[in-house]
Amino acid sequence: MSGDKVRFDRVSKTFETRTGRRTTAVTALDRLTLGVRPGEFLVVVGPSGCGKSTLLDLVGGLSKPTAGQVLVDGRPVTGPGLDRGIVFQQYALLPWRTAAGNVAFGLEAKGVPAADRADLVARHLDLVGLGAFAGHYPHQLSGGMKQRVAIARSLAYDPDILLMDEPFAALDAQTRDSLQDELVRIWERTGKTVIFITHAIDEAVYLGQRVAVMTSRPGRIKEVIDVELGDRDAAEDVRSSDAFRHHRHQIWTLLRDEVRAAQAAERPTLRRQEAPVG
Amino acid sequence: MVDLAERPTRLAAPVTAAPANPGWPGRLLGYAGRLAHRSVAVLALAAVWELAPRAGLVDRVFLPPLSEVLVTWFELLRNGQLAEHVAASLTRSVAGLALAVVLAIPLGLLIGWYRPLADLLSPLLEVFRNTAALALLPVFVLILGLGETSKIALVLYACSWPILLNTIAGVKGVDPLLVRSARSMGLNHLRLFQKVILPAAVPTIFTGVRLAGAYSILVLVAAEMVGAKAGLGYLINYAQYNFAITDMYSGIITISAIGLLVNQLLVAGERRFSTWRVDVTA
After folding, report:
1. Is residue B79 exposed (0-12), middle (13-18) or buried (19+ Cβ within 10 Å)?
2. Nearest C-alpha of chain B: how many angstroms from A70?
3. Which residues of B touch A85 (CB under 8 A)?
4. Which residue of A62, A77, A96, A112 is the best one to mutate when testing the B interface, meaning the one whose CB has the most B CBs within 10 A?
5. Nearest residue of chain B to residue A150 (CA atoms)
6. In what order do the strands lie in the sheet with A84-87?
7. What is the pLDDT along chain A (278 residues), one digit of tens a residue?
8. Residue that finishes a domain, picked among A101, A133, A158
């Protein structure tokens, strides 16, 4: 297992949350172990609140594990770095910069000389099909276009690993489908290792070479599934193939109990909040 | 979500703008109509001011008709007195405002960014913020004397608060996601501040400067009522003292015109600095 690009080694993460005067410790991840192979597209799927995003923060170096360690190329993660790029659900574009300015942002952080930046920016905007929108500000772009800019930004500074935190969750269905296709295309072309977080089963099956199913809180890996959809280009509509349906059902079954468990854990607090109203 | 709805029109604008063009006479007419509509209330006020004293509804000694005030105003303009007062007032306003910008923005950035400093200073800031600038006028005069220093200091004091508070709010109000995203690219504190925090806070800071611009004119009049030898506040006060009622109203009109002008200028500046904020405020 030493060939893993990213390795979670019995990683635990607990948060202190304060309700009134009491502080309670919430365990988001509990001794989670998972290996991600170089160049792989791994999708992590799990019920809401299972610690999926926490997982990504740990690889990104935005927070530290309470116990265990996260290894990238065999070395423990000590902080953020440009070898990992994060794509957030809410785009996180700088609203005062144009699309080109936003793509250049990561290059500035990396210290790429200004002379080389313009070419890299243009190339990556073209890669996501936004070459004609270089001068547009985020508020002039649609949600899908904004997310393309964010993806171009992350790709431009050339990280080994792309971390994607439900990047398409806020988009409409058509935009989501086309961006999924584009992401697969980009991944095939660039050979990046991708860790993609989602709660949508279809998306997981469609994108992932492997899908890691998480348990409800505290989050662990319940099972890792190898997705075998055959030749994507040969099949006309991969999403309605037998193999696709099989994997979808497989993951749905694995998730069903976890979703129930997650709902049961959320319900008592809901009832307490509703009481004064009713 | 508004930006989504807006996008097609924005992107399509260069293509579809031409056929819908009503031609310049039509546009001019529309513009004139809007202008008329917007100036009705002001013209009505002018009419009431002109007619009420003439009809004997108010004592014309205390409120002379507008036309008489305007005659005096032009007289003051012609003999150069008005220019002298305006120059004296604007010097104080601009000096106070400029000092406030120079002092309050860096201080606000520090307080907004550096938590321990905020905890240390915020009780003190709360106390002073709730002390009216005009209540401190006698203190300024006692300590700084009757000259320019105390007047500029009062303007500085009054202008500092909106700038300081807006700067703090601007820094604290930066979208945490932008900070997370920048941090994930390994930006250190200084670069994060320079490339994310500061540009994100600029529109909010400029709103503070605009408010301060208004204050700089408002408190000035009061400041000039004590121990001044020139200035619009002095003119108003002195004229009232000497029963030169039309002079007094001339001063009032001028100061309100200057206030309006300063505000318009700063609003235009504010718009320039915050074009990208459309989708945040919409």
Report:
1. exposed
2. 16
3. 184-185
4. A96
5. B181
6. A84-87, A161-165, A193-198, A41-45, A210-214, A221-226
7. 468 888 989 888 888 887 777 788 888 888 888 999 999 999 999 887 778 888 889 999 888 998 889 989 888 988 898 889 999 988 899 999 999 999 999 898 888 888 888 998 998 898 888 889 988 999 888 888 998 899 899 988 889 999 999 888 888 888 888 888 888 888 888 889 999 999 888 889 888 889 999 888 788 888 888 888 776 666 667 778 888 888 889 888 888 887 777 777 766 555 444 444 33
8. A158
> Which among B4, B181, B279 has the least Cβ separation from residue A95?
B279
Return the H-helix or E-strand segment holding A196. Answer: strand A193-198
This complex has an ipTM of: 0.83
**Which residue in this structure is represented by tokens 């609140």?**
A49
Across the interface, whether the CB atoms of A140 and B177 are under 8 A apart is answered: no
Residues B126 and B237 in one domain: yes
Q: Is residue A13 part of a domain?
A: yes
Q: Which residues of A touch B185 (CB under 8 A)?
A: 80, 82, 85, 105-106, 109-110, 157
Can you read off the two tokens belonging to residue A47? 């019920």
Q: Using a CB–CB cutoff of 8 Å, tell me whether B128 touches chain A.
A: no
Write out the residue range of the structural domain in which residue A170 sits: 1-76+163-174+192-278
